[in-house]
Design a protein that fits this description.
The chain contains 19 helices and 20 strands. A hairpin with a 2-residue loop joins strand 6 and strand 7. Strands 1, 2, 5, 6, 7, 8, 19 and 20 form an eight-stranded mixed β-sheet that branches. Its cofactor is FAD.
């Protein structure tokens, strides 16, 4: 049996875990980092992300003519979070401190580590209802050059250097199954050693046990992620009264190692869990034609122009428009069925469709400015988008509406759509383009988006009639619910210490990242403003590493 004594044990070698290790080592602490996956998975889920960071009043924003402030950002955050529970005191405090950091030292700290950002700031999660409610009032989504790999890379480099210097020990294929407590304090971990794996990053790995371990430390930090890879757990905690019944079919936005098991292990040792019913799943999921993990889904990051229809063929009303209100749209979709549809044109897909994930954006991940201009400003959609259009199981392409609807009905024979009903709704929308006035909320939103030069440049197509043949071909995309993030989890105080169900500190145990709802047990409240998942891992990882 393996047996080690160290200052700090970190369970989970994702972004939050690496940040915590970095901060602890800077304090002179010796660190043992454990992960159930193999070395090729160092960096965890963050590796697959688009690399967006929520930052406030940055040079990138100012160059794009965006006026932002800490006060506006905090108003947006609180309007989105809608904290309403007694246990929200620590999540609210984390939110306030994070917005201060995002408007202050965050960018310089990331810059000093080596991160750089694409100059066009994205406008994600726009809300679309009331000024005091959910949504970003201004663009704040800063895409890191290198996408998720660009956020992870500085820490991968440092972990390698720390390991070579003897300051960090990395133990892969070590699955923690229990926390060791002594006189009420957490003093170590125990678990199984799994057989070695050469599977590529993200792929399923063996759970064959070849040994056991028991390691001891002054402090244990849990950074093991959420529950999005276990759909049974997602359904168990699904807020049915708030969102409706969970879908029977969902696609997975995370690898299957995101299994949420550490939640139960920590709870068994005495830790408190809060806000487990708060979760963040996307409405625009499509099946990956080239999957990496089981049931692999990819999220479409749409511009504002695609027409969005529910499973019954009814066009969804504002604010349930592409890119505006994720959870509100999720609830609206589930009122009619389990899937929804985009209907759009070739001109729209070329200008507006992006796909979430580092592997779907090679120009931003591995390239530079010329690669981006060629992929996103030149003729045609990006190669990744065209591949999904041509090979994706959820895509239908046709030269006329009759053929398009026939193809849609072949995909969903149990939920057939009525041709003339769709034609009437699309034609009515097209008729609103005949003059500069409109009562159509989506057309107003499109024109508003194009007032921001970043959207006009690379994210919003010039308004045009969908049923005019010169804008085609027509494209329909069946959209699935895609599981992604847990917004609740282990209850922590502002020092990253895990609390018991009665709110007292559990000595020796800390948490960071998604396992604690990115801080406090859910610093997003009910809604995320995007760029706040990676940012939450950075922020809460720093806190845990500075205190463990």
């Amino acid at each position: 049996m393996d047996n080690t004594q160290t200052d700090v044990i970190i369970v989970g070698a994702g972004l939050a875990g690496m940040v915590a290790a970095h901060e602890a080592i800077l304090r002179g602490r010796s660190v043992l980092m454990l992960d159930q996956e193999a070395p090729q998975s160092l960096g965890g889920q963050a590796f697959w992300s688009l690399g967006g960071l929520f930052m406030v009043d940055t040079p990138e924003q100012r160059r794009m003519g965006i006026k932002d402030s800490p006060e506006l950002a905090l108003n947006d955050w609180m309007g989105s979070a809608q904290f309403d529970r007694p246990e929200d005191a620590n999540p609210r405090l984390y939110a306030e401190r994070f917005v201060e950091w995002a408007a202050g030292p965050m960018r310089q700290w990331c810059f000093d580590l080596g991160m750089r950002w694409f100059p066009v700031v994205g406008w994600a999660e726009r809300g679309g209802a009331q000024a005091h409610g959910h949504g970003n009032s201004v663009p704040r989504f800063h895409i890191t050059w290198g996408t998720g790999t660009g956020v992870v890379a500085p820490f991968l480099k440092r972990m390698t250097e720390y390991a070579a210097a003897g300051k960090l020990k990395l133990a892969f294929r070590h699955r923690v199954t229990g926390l060791i407590t002594t006189d009420g304090a957490v003093t170590g971990v125990r678990g199984d050693v799994l057989e070695n794996s050469t599977a590529a990053r993200g792929q399923s790995t063996s759970r064959e046990v070849t040994g056991s371990f028991e390691h001891h430390a002054d402090a244990v930090v849990l950074t093991t992620g959420g529950v999005g890879g276990d759909h049974a757990l997602v359904r168990k905690h699904w807020p049915e009264a708030r969102l409706g019944k969970p879908p029977k079919v969902m696609v997975a936005g995370v690898p299957d190692y995101v299994d949420g098991k550490m939640h139960g292990i920590a709870k068994a040792a005495g830790a408190g869990l809060i806000n487990e019913d708060r979760m963040w799943h996307y409405c625009e999921g499509v099946q990956n034609w080239n999957p990496i993990w089981p049931n692999h889904g990819i999220r479409i990051l749409p511009g504002p122009s695609s027409m969005w229809f529910d499973a019954k063929g009814q066009r969804m009303e504002a604010p349930f428009l592409p890119g505006f209100d994720t959870l509100g749209t999720l609830k609206r979709i589930l009122q009619a069925g389990e899937h929804s549809w985009f209907i759009l044109t070739q001109k729209i897909i070329e200008k507006e469709f992006a796909l979430s994930g580092s592997e779907q954006n090679p120009d931003l991940t591995d390239g530079g400015w010329m690669d981006v201009l060629k992929a996103r400003v030149g003729a045609g959609a990006t190669p990744a988008v065209e591949a999904f259009k041509n090979k994706g199981a959820d895509f239908v392409v046709a030269d006329d509406l009759e053929t398009l609807v026939a193809g849609m009905n072949r995909l969903t024979p149990d939920h057939p759509l009525e041709l003339e009903g769709l034609r009437r709704q699309i034609a009515s929308r097209d008729a609103q383009l005949a003059n500069p006035f409109s009562k159509d909320a989506q057309i107003t939103a499109i024109r508003g988006a194009r007032a921001y030069r970043g959207d006009k440049l690379i994210r919003t197509a010039k308004p045009h009639a969908i049923l005019e043949g010169e804008n085609g071909p027509l494209i329909a995309v069946r959209l699935n619910i895609l599981t992604r993030k847990s917004l609740g989890g282990l209850h922590t105080d502002i020092e990253g210490r895990v609390l018991t169900p009665d709110g007292t500190v559990m000595p020796g145990l800390y948490a960071a990242g998604e396992v604690c709802g990115f801080g406090g047990g859910g610093y997003h409240g009910y809604n995320a403003l995007e760029g706040t998942f990676l940012g939450g891992c950075l922020f809460s990882g720093r806190i845990a590493g500075q205190n463990a």
